[in-house]
Amino acid sequence: xxxxxxxxxxxxxxxxxxxxxxxxxxxxxxxxxxxxxxxxxxxxxxxxxxxxxxxxxxxxxxxxxxxxxxxxxxxxxxxxxxxxxxxxxxxxxxxxxxxxxxxxxxxxxxxxxxxxxxxxxxxxxxxxxxxxxxxxxxxxxxxxxxxxxxxxxxxxxxxxxxxxxxxxxxxxxxxxxxxxxxxxxxxxxxxxxxxxxxxxxxxxxxxxxxxxxxxxxxxxxxxxxxxxxxxxxxxxxxxxxxxxxxxxxxxxxx
Length: 254
Known about the structure:
The protein is of the alpha+beta class and 254 residues long. It is 30% helix and 40% strand. β5 and β6 form a beta hairpin.
């Protein structure tokens, strides 16, 4: 943590020396690498930083802060279930080309009080503004229903979240936000974007990265599945058959 603070102050000093005329935003994150291994129950990321107005004014008195943390994008086909004759079957479906595996927004106050809807949509300041890139031809009403269903599913899984009072600004200069990563996060590169907003306009933005990766036995299994898919599949089938046979024998002896 101390090392991160030193990097933050060094970056701030370097930016000031360059004589930048726009607002200065220097973000940092408590850990740039999250290791997922057996027993992983999730973790909390602290995103913090500083914002100063080059004129010398206390920036925290005028600027709002919005932090957006996004996980690797995925292509998803969402299916809708329908009850027919007392049986639930797959009905319609919709494809999305670019769905963030994780999405969290934290802001110093409600987004609708900070920017207008158009600006919020441009910078994805909320789950309803996520750019999901739907594909195929589908009427707007049905598409909206699928989008709402996808977001609701992700929220129930703990992968999408909004906290409109989750950023705390102190001393008129420093800010911090805490975002939870659940145990079911997808591995890959995560981007944390920080935005400074004044008078309804984004006047500064900066980005930092977090890598979520598997380690230990979980990583070996993942690499085996990716590099030797056929052998891994055969092993999984044989393991299932063997486990079933052993269980059957044990129950027969009871």
